Amino acid sequence: MDRSQKADSVAYLNGVFSEAGAVIVTRNLGLTVAQTTVLRNKIREVGATYKVAKNSLAKLAVAGTDYEGLGDFFTGPTAIAASVDPVAAAKAIVEFAKTTDKIEIVGGSMGTQVLNADGVKALASMPSLDELRGTLIGLIQAPATKLAQLATAPAAKLARVFSAYAEKEAA
After folding, report:
1. Contact 70, 60 (CB under 8 A)
2. Cβ of 137: how many Cβ atoms within 10 Å?
3. What percentage of residues in the chain have a pLDDT greater than 70?
4. Which of 10, 39, 79, 168 stands 20 to 30 A from 70 (CA)?
5. pLDDT of residue 171
6. How many C-beta atoms surround the C-beta of residue 86 within 10 A?
7. In whole angstroms, how large is the CA radius of gyration of the chain?
8. What is the structure's pLDDT at 26?
9. Which residues contact 50 (CB under 8 A, 6 or more apart)?
10. Burial zone of 166 (CB within 10 Å; 0-12 exposed, 13-18 middle, 19+ buried)
11. How close are the terminal C-alpha atoms of the chain, in Å?
């Protein structure tokens, strides 16, 4: 890598750190190209990014961001998964790590809060931002639906009573 490529890489990583809701650091313990492709596809599906980065460049990029606490995690063959949704990247990495022992979750961070590997697994067990939004919308819509049912119920009961009287008089 020449200087301009290194500068571009640091700028890209700094942008990732600036925009991310959570960053997960993993250690590659011999993943094949096929396994890495599967992992990248899973991560891309949830709207996250996965980047193998040179440790010295990652340490430079993390300086001055909320993720400075991750600097100690950048040793050995590391990769960085990041997403705006704090849970998305963690879920994808943890699910993939269950299928193979060739990837190790080193740690992560949500802003200034540094997480160890167990913290990342706990983060992955939380519902994603989309799931929370769906639950919230369901909770908001439920009272409105019940109000609509309550408002129409008396009218429906009256209609049934009138219908019964009409049938009784017709007979």
Report:
1. no
2. 10
3. 92
4. 39
5. 67
6. 20
7. 26
8. 92
9. 39, 40, 43, 44, 79, 80, 81, 89
10. exposed
11. 95
| Strand intervals (E) in the chain | 22-28, 49-52, 78-83, 103-110, 113-116
Strand order in the sheet with 78-83: 49-52, 78-83, 22-28, 103-110, 113-116
Token reading at 107: 């740690």
Model confidence pLDDT, tens digit, residues 64-101:
888 888 888 898 889 999 988 888 888 999 999 998 88
Tokens 């299928």 -> residue = 99
pTM: 0.71
Residue pair 66/112 in contact (Cβ under 8 Å)? The answer is yes
- Beta bridge partner(s), residue 146: none
pLDDT digits (tens, 9 = 90+) for 129-141: 777 778 778 777 7
Q: What pLDDT score was predicted for residue 44? A: 92
Give exposure, 31-55, as e/b (b: 16+ Cβ within 10 Å): beeebbeebbebbeebebbbbebbe
CA distance 15 to 17: 5
